[in-house]
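Sequence in, structure out. Go.
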Amino acid sequence: MIDEITMKIRADELIRSALAEDVTNEDVSTACILRERTEGEADLLCKQDGVIAGLPVFARVFAILDDKTEVTFFAKDGDRVRKGQKLAKVRGDMRVILTGERTALNYLQRMSGIATYTANVARLLEGSSLRLVDTRKTTPNMRIFEKYAVRVGGGGNHRYNLSDAILLKDNHIGAAGGVKQAVAKAKAYAPFTMKIEVETETLDMVKDAVEAGADIIMLDNMTHEQMKQAVALIAGRAVVEISGNVTAENIEKLKDIGADIVSSGALTHSAPILDVSLKNLHTL
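Output:
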C-alpha cells in the first residue's frame, strides 16, 4: 500500500533520475540568459477542473536542485481544484525554477490526471460494496507515484509488485498443469502469511480454485451472467475480484454482481493528464 510517507522514502532516487534524463550537462537555454543566481518567483496555476495529486513531488524536484527553494501551497493533495486556481507559489533561484519546471510539472500533471480519473470512476461505484483498485499496468519507474495518485483519488492499491502476493495467472496455471496443481504448489512454497489469488476465465476454473482453497478468486473477462454464477458458486469462501477491460464506460454494470473488488488497469494506463502550468516568472 502506497501512502505519502512511503512515497517520500523512495521518491528521491526516481526524481534525480528524471532530472538527469532532462539535463545531461547543463540547461543551456537557462544558462545563456542567467549567468548567476537571480531571485525570482512564479505561480503554479491550474488550467482544468480536477483532483490534485503530487504537490510534495512537485516541490521536491526544486528542493533537490536547490534546498533554498521555497514552495508555498494554496491547496493539498486530494483537493478538488478549478480552472484558473492558483495552487502554489515557487520562490528561489530563477535558474532552478526554469531547469526544474518541466520535470516538476510532468509529475504533477500525470499524478493529478490519475487522481482525477480515479475519483470519477470511484464515484460511479457509490452505493455498491465494490472496492476499486489499480493494477501493475503502470509506467516504468513511475509506479510509486501512480499508485499513490490512485489512493489520493479515492481508489485502493492491488499488489505493488511481484514480491507482494501470489497471483496465479493463466500462464502460471498452464505451467503448473491446472488450477488445483498451481494452488497446491503455491501453498507448499509460500509462507502462511501470504494470500493466494487465482485468475479464472471459466466456471470450471472457479470451482477448482474454491476446492483448492484459494484466498482470492479473480473473474477475468467473464460475461455478466458468468460472473453472477461464479459469485454464487464461491458463496463467500473467497474474496471475489472482477478484472478485465474495466473502464469508466462500463464499470457501473458491475455493481450488481456481488463481488468484493474491481481492478482496473485504466486508472493508470489510460488517465489523461490534468493540465497545470508554471507562469508569471519574474525577478524579486
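Check: Residues 75 and 210 are 47 Å apart (CA to CA). The first strand starts at residue 39 and ends at 46.
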